[in-house]
Fold Transposase.
Amino acid sequence: MSDSTTIRVFRFRLYPTTAQEAAMFETLRLTRALYNAGLEQRISAYKKQGKTVTAYDQQKEITALKAECPEYAGVYSHVLQDALDRLDRAYKSFFARVKRGEKGGFPRFKPRQRWNSFKFKEVWDKKKGQWLSPGKPVDEGRRINIPKIGAVRCKFHRPLEGVPKTLQIVLDVDQWYAVYTCEVPVNPLPATASVVGVDVGTRYFAITSDGEFVENPRHLGKFLKKLRVQQRTTARRRKGSNRRRKSVQMVAKTHRKIRRQRQDFHHKTARKLVREHDLIAHEDLRVSNMVQSNFARSISDVGWASFFQILSGKAESAGRKVVPVAPQYTSQRCNRCGHTCRENRLGEVFRCVSCGHEDHADWNAAKNILARALPSGENGGSHAVA
Ligand SMILES: [Zn+2]
């Protein structure tokens, strides 16, 4: 047993009463208003006096806010702090992007549809080894305690593991969820002595250096079609009408269905890779985005990024290694002799103009990706990429 730990996410469906649900909606409304007011404050202080308002300055004002606006007294302090923390993170990542020379991403005001959660940042008393008030299971595990909202019915379809850290209450279209993060011990799987490179694509979801072709999930197309029909219906309906609101809800539900199917598929695919291999190499998408500013590709990148996130989470808790590698020329480089040029690739076929090596184009790429992750590097290549 190793003593290192990793963070795991546990998500459970909540069944609030009408009054509890109203209180949760009200919490969303107030935290969003706080976020937007905090943003407004930062912008105007900067415009008027060139002054920077820090997260610390804003956190200090929460007590005064509670005294002035009684409605805020009805929200747990940590939940309010978290709204301002989110604003601070948005600012920090904006400045980090500016520093890297990337464009845009100045923090924006949050409309209702882009604010669907609030968070308790502490749920466990480490010293005493027991639950604090937020998130504590009560009523023999049938409900959880949500401060200022009540004991909300919760379906624990599997047990929590490790030490609980935070609790987020999330609204997903018309369903509520309790999302716990827990610190769990790493539980290494037995070594397999197998290493693999994974190339993601649009024709296939992924191709491995072992020659495995992972198809895209089958039912997704059907739902995407349904989504397009529903979106057209919505567009025809009068703004502000009841029928339109119902239609918008339908679209959101189909989106949710697609997202969940995709997630299930990602989990299944990641589980298999982690079970079978000690090391998994893939292209570093953050780099690939900059290299190939291709719109269609950047859209599917979103899906792959969440897949790689799931993969690295599973790998971490299983003691496996995931290695992102530089993506340059993986599809143009000959895996046998290292010759790298555009002419090597003809659609799905790879044919090296130097040594005549033939392969499936993506399979060849997957092998290059694996080679880049191994200590021996890209052997045989006279055209190594800097
Ligand atoms: Zn070659």
User: Anything to note?
Assistant: The longest helix spans residues 242-276.
